[in-house]
């Protein structure tokens, strides 16, 4: 992953540092910045989140040219040597890179044979060492021909008055303002500075100064530049009094629902839904990664209730290897909060080649996935800053509910209004008591049946992502086919039961755990008698609502459980170790 930014204008340190803060969701293993002034470089590098670099930086009001990078380590350990920017052998050229160079080992070997020395282990340093003394557009062409893989590159030299760039399969945008130009992995970096920006396509490269931008296509022809207006707000979302973004974002779910209700009644969105309905299809695929994949499972659940056709949900990174029967009659729905997840984008390209109709459901209308889709359905969740996705999951499920209703010709506004009134965030004190208890264990299992199993999967993912407690989710009926062998008194098992019809079976499975010493915790919307209650160490009661929304009602409290447990274990819930919010490498 990683985020890159480059800037020409006054106050480069300030603008680049602010860019790093906005890009931090792409990785926070280390950050770095190089500023060119008076034919010399000043470089800052630091391990850990971007705040760590701030104290080192000497902020100046003067003009300068700079590049900066926030890293999510792929090749090479998290250390200063592997921290970007990387430099050519003579130190005259500096470069930042997002992506993966697939042939870097081969290139590195050739360079070592030529006597080049390497400071670190990254694939990115190999690109830097491919440059020699000078930097002009021919050098970019030459290096571009040598490297294979994904890259968004910003490159400067000690003597040039411009920033060079190249892009393939990693996002890259250029913001153009009066006497300034910014290049970045995400146009949110332009907000506050300029409203005009260009989206670069794969295989494009070029250079820009304060006055001029030159972009070449894959055939080395100059591309005519058509800037787009920045039509989204970068709401600098502060924590609004909350201790962390994650808890604030969980509580924003009601607001998100209000936004969706409002937007999904508009002519513009209804036209999009009508277009989807007009497609001829006899199969639906719901595709995503992580939490977005779980939203796809919920969508599959909704759609299977309504349609008598095949509906599949798939993990994006597996799509290309499964010989799926995708053709012109397939409606392929790609779900992604960031709209930049490389596995999802790559699955999208695969389905497009097979002739599938491509729909995306994203939280970033300018993103690669939204742009590559035939129709994009936005989720209007607002910026989600915490790495663990919460309000976006909620919103994705709601949009999938709306899509299902629309295709079926059912009203969705009235049920959503009712749900808005019934949303239940639960009692913090009750959840805190449970989190204190869970935080002392190193394994937690989740079970559920039917749609409750999907909630179990998502709850388990949330818990392991931010608490680092080992966790797995199982369909409750599947326990006795293996997992029950692990049960002992050191494993709390969280039972999710919101479906009346399935309750007695789930209850029996719970007793099988209890009989083997496991501790039981129940999340339920059902009324249960005292005799049953006695089997559970904790019971969290969830307010009942329309059955389609029960998975959302229950997940709100399970998200909070993960949050409070992470806090109890002394973790930063917003920035879990080893993870990043946007995963732009396959
Ligand atoms: C990362 C994030 C997850 C997210 C997944 C898919 O792993 O940490 O929270 O669910 O990517 O991201 P997307 O942006 O495609 O929804």
Taken as a percent bin, the fraction of beta residues is 15-25%
Largest sheet: 8 strands, antiparallel
Helical content stands at 25-40%
Alpha-beta content class: alpha/beta
CATH topology of the largest domain: Glutamine Phosphoribosylpyrophosphate, subunit 1, domain 1
Bound molecules: 6-O-phosphono-alpha-D-glucopyranose
User: What is the typical, i.e. mean, pLDDT?
Assistant: 94
Shape: globular
The CATH class of the largest domain turns out to be Alpha Beta
Total E-strand runs: 24
The CATH architecture of the largest domain is 4-Layer Sandwich
Biggest β-sheet: strands ordered side by side in the sheet: 3-2-4-1-10-9-11-14
Task: Provide the domain count.
Answer: 3
Q: What do these coordinates show?
A:
The protein is an alpha/beta fold. The chain folds into 3 domains: 3-234, Aminohydrolase, N-terminal nucleophile (Ntn) domain (Glutamine Phosphoribosylpyrophosphate, subunit 1, domain 1, 4-Layer Sandwich); 245-422, 3-Layer(aba) Sandwich (Rossmann fold); 428-568, Glucose-6-phosphate isomerase like protein, domain 1 (Rossmann fold, 3-Layer(aba) Sandwich), CATH 3.40.50. Helix content is 34%, strand content 24%. It has an 8-stranded antiparallel sheet, with helices on one face. Strands 5-6-7-8-12-13 form a 6-stranded antiparallel sheet. A 5-stranded parallel sheet has the order 16-15-17-18-19, sandwiched between helices. α16 links the parallel β22 and β23. α7 (253-263) runs antiparallel to α13, α9 runs antiparallel to α15 (451-467) and α15 (451-467) packs parallel to α18 (550-568). The radius of gyration is 25 Å and the shape is globular. The N and C termini lie close together (9 Å). 51% of the residues are buried. The model has no long low-confidence stretch (mean pLDDT 94). Residues 289-292, 336-338, 341, 344, 387-389, 579, 581-583 line the site of 6-O-phosphono-alpha-D-glucopyranose.
């Amino acid at each position: 992953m990683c985020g890159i930014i480059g800037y020409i204008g006054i106050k480069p340190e300030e603008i680049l540092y602010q860019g790093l803060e906005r890009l931090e969701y792409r990785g926070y293993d280390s950050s770095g910045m190089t500023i060119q002034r008076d034919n010399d470089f000043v470089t800052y590098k630091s391990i850990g989140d971007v705040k760590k670099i701030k104290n080192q930086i000497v902020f100046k009001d003067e003009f300068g040219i700079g590049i900066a990078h926030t890293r999510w380590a792929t090749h090479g350990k998290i250390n200063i040597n592997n921290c970007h920017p990387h430099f050519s052998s003579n130190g005259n050229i500096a470069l930042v890179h997002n992506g993966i160079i697939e042939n870097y080992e081969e290139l590195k070997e050739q360079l070592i044979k030529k006597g080049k020395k390497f400071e670190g282990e990254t694939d990115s340093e190999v690109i830097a060492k491919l440059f020699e003394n000078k930097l002009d557009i021919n050098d970019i062409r030459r290096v571009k021909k040598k490297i294979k893989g994904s890259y968004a590159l910003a490159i400067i030299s000690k003597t040039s008055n411009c920033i060079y760039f190249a892009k393939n399969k990693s996002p890259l945008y250029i913001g153009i303002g009066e006497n300034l130009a910014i290049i970045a992995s995400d146009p949110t970096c332009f907000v506050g500075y300029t409203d005009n920006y260009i989206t670069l396509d794969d295989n494009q490269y070029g250079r820009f100064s304060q006055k001029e931008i030159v972009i070449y296509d894959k055939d080395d022809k100059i591309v005519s530049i058509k800037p787009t207006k920045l039509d989204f707000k970068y709401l600098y979302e502060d924590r609004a009094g909350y201790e962390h973004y994650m808890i604030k974002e969980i509580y924003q779910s009601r607001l998100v629902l209000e936004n969706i209700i409002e937007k999904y009644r508009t002519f513009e969105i209804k036209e999009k839904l009508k277009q989807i309905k007009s497609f001829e299809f006899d199969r639906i695929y719901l595709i995503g990664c992580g939490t977005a994949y779980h939203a796809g499972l919920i969508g599959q659940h909704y759609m299977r209730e309504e349609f008598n056709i095949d509906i599949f949900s798939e993990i994006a990174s597996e799509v290309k290897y499964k010989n799926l029967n995708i053709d012109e009659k397939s409606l392929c729905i790609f779900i992604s909060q960031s709209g930049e997840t490389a596995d999802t984008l790559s699955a999208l390209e695969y389905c497009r080649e097979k002739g599938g109709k491509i729909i995306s459901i994203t939280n970033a209308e300018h993103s690669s996935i939204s742009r590559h889709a035939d129709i994009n359905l936005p989720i209007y969740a607002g910026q989600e800053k915490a790495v663990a996705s919460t309000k976006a999951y909620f919103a994705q499920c709601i949009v999938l509910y709306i899509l299902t209703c629309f295709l079926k010709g059912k009203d969705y506004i009235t049920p959503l209004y009712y749900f808005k009134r019934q949303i239940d965030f639960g009692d913090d004190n009750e959840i805190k008591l449970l989190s204190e208890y869970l935080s002392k264990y190193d394994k937690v299992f989740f079970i559920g049946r039917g749609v409750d199993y999907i909630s179990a999967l998502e709850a388990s993912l949330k818990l392991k992502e931010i608490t680092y407690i080992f966790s797995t989710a199982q369909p409750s009926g599947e326990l006795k086919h293996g997992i029950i062998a692990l049960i002992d008194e050191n494993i709390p098992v969280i039972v999710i039961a919101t479906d009346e019809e399935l309750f007695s079976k789930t209850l029996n499975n719970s007793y099988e755990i209890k009989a083997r010493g496991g501790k039981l915790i129940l999340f339920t919307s059902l009324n249960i008698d005292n005799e049953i209650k006695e089997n559970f160490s904790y019971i969290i009661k969830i307010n009942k609502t329309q059955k389609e929304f029960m998975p959302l009602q229950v997940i709100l409290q399970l998200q909070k459980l993960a949050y409070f447990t992470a806090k109890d274990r002394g973790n930063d819930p917003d920035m879990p170790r080893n993870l990043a919010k946007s995963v732009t490498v396959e």
